Amino acid sequence: MKNRLKVLRAMRNWSQADLAEKLEVSRQSVNAIETGKYDPSLPLAFRIADLFELPIEEIFERGE
Amino acid sequence: MPAKITNPAVRRYTIRLFVLMTAYVLFLILAKWMFKRGMAEGSFAYVLALLPALPIIGVFWAVMRLLVEQTDEYLRMLMVRQCLFATGFALFVTTIREWLQNFDLIAAGDGGFGAAFFWFAGLGLGALYNRLTLGDGGCS
After folding, report:
1. pLDDT tens sequence across B59-68
2. Shortest Cα distance from B67 to chain A (angstroms)?
3. In chain A, at which end, N or C, are there fewer CB atoms within 10 A of the end residue's CB?
4. pTM score
C-alpha cells in the first residue's frame, strides 16, 4: 500500500521521531510505514488521519 | 555506557530475563552440586532436577508477555515473526536429530542442547531474518 506520510510529515517540518511521538509509536514504525515495509492497522491509520486532519484515503492509496 | 531502553514493555522483559537467568544459573549450580554429592534422592531428586527448567519455562512466559504487553504494533509484528522463526527452527533441528537417533546414526541424548536452546538460538536467527527481509532487527 502506498502512502503520502513522508510528504505530509515534511510539509509540517516534523522529523520521524516527532511523528512517532505524536502517534505514540516507535520511530521504527514510522520509518517502516513511510517506506512501505509495513501497512498500519486500521486503528493506527485512523490515528494518522486524525493527526493530519485528512481522510484516510488521502494518505493511503491502493497498490503494492 | 549501555543504551537506555525506552520501550516500557521491552524494559519489563529485560528485567524479567535478568531475574530468570540469574535464577537459572543459581538453580543449575545447586542441582549439580547436590547431585554430585549424592544429596538428591527419591522424589526430592525429581524436584531438584526440574528446578533449573523452571526459569527456562519462565523465559518462554516472559517472551509471550512481551508479545502481549508490546503496544507498538510494528515492533510486535517483528517479535511475532521472530517467535515463528524460532519455533520453526527448533522443530526443524530437533526433528532431524530425533530421526537420526531413531536409526542409530547419531548418539542418543541431546548433549545439553535441548529444544529450548534451539528455540532461543532461533530467536536470534529470527532477528537476523527480520533485518535481512525488512531491514529491521526489532526492539531497541
Report:
1. 999 999 999 9
2. 15
3. C
4. 0.86
Alpha-carbon gap, residue B38 to B75, rounded angstroms: 48
Distance between A26 CA and the closest CA of chain B, angstroms? 7
Maximum CA extent, chain A = 28
- What the block records as the C-alpha cell of B72 is 507498538
Which pLDDT value is given to residue B135? 85
Where exactly are the structural domains of chain B? Answer: 1-71, 72-140
Read off the pLDDT of residues B27-54 as tens digits, 9 standing for 90 and up: 999 999 999 999 989 999 999 999 999 9
Q: Which residue of B has its CA nearest to A30?
A: B74
Q: Which of A28, A37, A41 sits opposite B75 (nearest CB)?
A: A28
Q: Which among B7, B77, B140 has CB closest to A38? A: B77
Rounded to a whole number, what is the distance in Å from the CA of A25 to chain B's nearest CA? 6
Q: What is the tens place of the pLDDT at every residue in B1-23?
A: 456 777 889 999 999 999 999 99
What kind of fold does domain A2-54 have according to CATH?
434 Repressor (Amino-terminal Domain) (1.10.260)
pLDDT given at position A15: 96
- In the numeric block, which cell numbers belong to residue A57? 484515503
Smallest CA-to-CA distance from B92 within B52, B113, B122, B47 is with B122
- The count of C-alpha atoms lying within 13 angstroms of the C-alpha of A28, restricted to the half-sphere facing its C-beta, is 18
